Amino acid sequence: MSADLRSFFGRPIIIGGGIAGLMTALQLSPEPVLLLSRSLLGADNSSTWAQGGLAASFGEDDDPAMHLADTVAAGDGLCDRDVASRILQAAPKAIEGLAGFGVRFDRTPEGSLCLGLEAAHSRRRIVHAHGDGTGREIMRALIAAVRSTPSIVVVEGVEARRLAVRENAIRGVWASCSIAPFFFGSRRVVLATGGIGGLFLDTTNPWGSCGQGLALAARAGAVLADLEFIQFHPTALDGPERPMALVSEAVRGEGAALIDETGQAFLQSVPGAELAPRDVLARAVWNHLADGHHVFLDARQRPGPAFARHFPTIASACLGAGINPARDLIPIRPAQHYHMGGVAVDSSGRTSVKGLWACGEVASTGLHGANRLASNSLTEAIVCARWVAESVAGTPARRTRPAFANVYPPPAPIAVRVFLSRALGIVRDGQGLKAAARALLPLAESKDAVSDPAAVGLMIAVAALLREESRGAHYRTDFPHHATAARRSEITLEAALAAARELGHSPSSEGAK
């Protein structure tokens, strides 16, 4: 990187090199933009690993209203219907736009899009590429488009550490790389940093997805929303490898069944069975495992011999574990997969901090509610990227002063994984959440590398503690029922720290440690 950074000052800065970040950069073209990626484009991000596809109402028996109904039902009363309707109405055209960037979707011999079925969808509406290689194919095309766009400057191997804020307005980004820290001055910054899987022991996300975008926003004073809602995918490949390989529910959409070690189905009492919403199915699998059983996905009959052709990525992961899905049972267990919560944004992706936007998994738009409907995540990213770009482009560029680059340690999430995995898993309770908050508080208040991951974990724990009900992916044994009214939650880092300090001073804290 050149030591002279003045040419970059004033450009919009996009933090994150996944689908949300790349799409936002492309939609901003031809306005000059700076894109910061902590790794080489296409490496170490959840977008590349995405298997299922993008959900949109392309079928003749489908329409956006049906897609909305399925989304709202899965969201368990917490979706923002207006936001969800707007996103899902725009989805088909946005996916067609991806094809314009060179994405090679799977099509019938007649040229129509192949549409898959996934859990909690009432219609076949999942658009995919190379079977289960959708994320990889989209990233291939978007990276090529970004690299060939002169107005986009990509800086790889650089990680944002802090946002410079003055009077609740963005002034720039402090970033670090292997050479030295840098300061990039800008009054327009977009967070597109992905999720939080790296904060959990069992996850299908890359380890680098450890909530750094949430930490950046929180330390800048932004409001975050619905942090307690963390989706656990019910069928991750059970084995020693971490992160865990995902076995897409598209496999169940093609007829694979869940059984235990006795060969018996155990979902008879679960409405929807194999195609129940993810939160419902994850709890059912978790409870069966807790009862001492082993759980397997049986794909020997359906899709059977066609498994490797339809799902080459999953087949490869299984073969690496010594499993032939056409002949053998696939051992599975739930694993952290997606974060419904994030930085609170409006319909244009604007946060509560002036000059700061968020897009993709790091944002909380209101689409997903308490439990994301399968394959709505990539759809949300590509649709909202256009609206974010339009909002950024419509915000006048203003000069900002250079600043010395401060040194901040890279995030080190290992120490917090045990606390989040224990207290913020599929089943929760108040005592566990309080214990986690107390343990995370001193880590979040430290100046060490653990402070940012701990701060994110602390905000999640406090948000989960304050939600005294069970809804969607948030299930509490001490509050097993819905509250009378559905409400979204909001929190700031300052409020979470204050709540945790109060817990530490409560009369019962000594006995609960």
From TrEMBL:
Cofactor field: FAD
UniProtKB keywords: FAD, Flavoprotein, Oxidoreductase, Pyridine nucleotide biosynthesis
Molecular function GO labels: L-aspartate oxidase activity
Cellular localization per UniProt: Cytoplasm
Superkingdom in the source lineage: Bacteria
Alphabetical list of SUPFAM superfamilies matching this protein: FAD/NAD(P)-binding domain (SSF51905), Succinate dehydrogenase/fumarate reductase flavoprotein C-terminal domain (SSF46977), Succinate dehydrogenase/fumarate reductase flavoprotein, catalytic domain (SSF56425)
Domain Fumarate reductase/succinate dehydrogenase flavoprotein-like C-terminal: 455-498
EC number: 1.4.3.16
Gene3D superfamilies: FAD/NAD(P)-binding domain, Fumarate reductase/succinate dehydrogenase flavoprotein-like, C-terminal domain, Succinate dehydrogenase/fumarate reductase flavoprotein, catalytic domain
Catalysed reactions, as listed in the record: L-aspartate + O2 = iminosuccinate + H2O2
A Pfam family hit: Succ_DH_flav_C
Main location: cytoplasm
Pathway(s) of this molecule: Cofactor biosynthesis; NAD(+) biosynthesis; iminoaspartate from L-aspartate (oxidase route): step 1/1
Domain FAD-dependent oxidoreductase 2 FAD-binding: 13-378
Matching InterPro entries: FAD-dep_OxRdtase_2_FAD-bd, FAD/NAD-bd_sf, Fum_R/Succ_DH_flav-like_C_sf, Fum_Rdtase/Succ_DH_flav-like_C, NadB, Succ_DH/fumarate_Rdtase_cat_sf
Chain's role: Catalyzes the oxidation of L-aspartate to iminoaspartate.
Family: Belongs to the FAD-dependent oxidoreductase 2 family. NadB subfamily.
Protein name: L-aspartate oxidase
Species of origin: Mesorhizobium caraganae
